[in-house]
Amino acid sequence: MFLTQIKFTVAALLALGVVATGMSLLAFGPGRGPSAAAAQQGTNEQSGAPAKEPAAEREAPAPEKEPPTEQKVGFANRKPLKAGPKDDELRKLQIERYNEALEEARSLLELVLRGAKTPNVLSDAHKRIAQSGLEVYDKPEDRIALLTDYIASAKAMEQIFKAQFEAGRVAETDMHHATYYRIDAEIQLLKAKRAAEKPKDK
Hints:
With 202 residues, this protein is mainly alpha-helical. 69% of the residues lie in helices and 0% in strands. The protein has helices at 2-28, 34-47, 55-58, 89-114, 120-134, 140-166, 172-197. Helix 5 (120-134) runs antiparallel to helix 6 (140-166).
């Protein structure tokens, strides 16, 4: 009888030990009982190592890239002119016409960038700037500077049309249209330079 009670007591103790071990595994996971967790905490406190933070908190956000600055070429750099006090009615109208051509080109550029207009409207507007500007500027150096801007604008348009033609967005005739204006600008510049090189009649 006494031996039977001892066996029963040992069996009950063993059963309690198994239950306690199972609860420890559920709470701390394999190999991380209360003693292991306490030992790990003590090691961190002794070494002075800070607790690891999540990767999202450690990594600094990447700086935002600044948008590319739009580079203005040709007529886009020109500003409207102001009539002088000595200018007659004809010259005032010529200056006003030139200024309107500049503003028209700027407005059309915005429409082209938004896709509301095709680029060929800019080529026509650039030609109007050149024609009206040649009647405003009298000095050879001013006329040469004007036509140099004309070439820069025409070349930019030609590149746009070539890229769109290669992408299948415009017809081949549109590309030739842009090339025509670039050649026209170069011809006018050469004429202006030759006229400036001619000796003036005394």
